[in-house]
Amino acid sequence: MINILICDDCSKTLQLIKNIVIKTYEEEMNFKDFNVLTFNNSADLISYVKNSVEKNIYILDIDLNEEKNGLKLGREIRKLDQYSGEMIFVTNHIELSFKVFQYKLRVVTFINKSLNLESQLKESLLIATEILNKQKDEKQKKLIIKIGTETFKILSQDIIYIETIKNSRKVILYSTNTMVEFYSTLKELMNSLDDNFIQIHKTSIVNKKYIKNVCKNSNNPHVEMTTGAICSISRTGLKEVSKACG
């Protein structure tokens, strides 16, 4: 489900944008799994976002008739959604577009209300929806492993780390809900995993999303995972982790 949240203090504009959104999803995309919600003030929108667990597309007017303008509203939304949704601004004040970058809001586009609103909004919605669908596909990627005659599929996003077994050609995979031992090499696994995974040592691969702490102590450099597991890290691994995790 994708929620399209529209905020504008003009009821006429709200309805116009809502109609365009519905038409775009139903006729242009043939997309049914969406919900359109309208808000005429920022407080109601923020209250909704605080409790939202779905992916959201925000369509915001910059010139809201209240103390908090659309840019400030956008910044507050980003604090709540951690940049997980897509944001579109519509306004008659196109000269304010440069301020979007000052606020670091990461928007899809900035639309001039008075210039082909429908065509611009359709194009922006197509882009925003494609981005969200791609993110969904990434989260659903699976690592396929074979153990004997059985095949197992494990969601990549659930894998915490993988380590080799000493004096063996096997590895152990630790995920959020299981532990699996199977024949493979770290090289083969790295070719099957996405960019969230880093080989930090000749004996281990970690999912950077689950890194809790990096100890750079020269006597015992290691990575601590959110589960409390400790994985040794090489000099090259330290560089890779620093680059990937900032």
From TrEMBL:
Pfam families linked to this entry: LytTR, Response_reg
Cross-referenced PANTHER family: STAGE 0 SPORULATION PROTEIN A HOMOLOG, TRANSCRIPTIONAL REGULATOR-RELATED
The keyword Phosphoprotein belongs to this UniProt entry's keyword annotation: yes
Gene3D superfamilies: 3.40.50.2300, LytTr DNA-binding domain (2.40.50.1020)
Name of the protein: Stage 0 sporulation protein A homolog
Signal sequence coordinates: none
All copies of domain HTH LytTR-type, residue ranges: 143-246
Chain positions with 4-aspartylphosphate modification: 61
Physiological role: Required for high-level post-exponential phase expression of a series of secreted proteins.
Domain of life of the native organism: Bacteria
Domain Response regulatory, first and last residues per copy: 3-128
A GO MF term: phosphorelay response regulator activity
InterPro entries: CheY-like_superfamily, LytR-like, LytTR_DNA-bd_dom, Sig_transdc_resp-reg_receiver
Keyword annotations of the record: Activator, Cytoplasm, DNA-binding, Phosphoprotein, Two-component regulatory system
SUPFAM superfamilies for the chain: CheY-like (SSF52172)
Source organism of the structure: Clostridium tagluense
Sections of the chain in a coiled coil: none
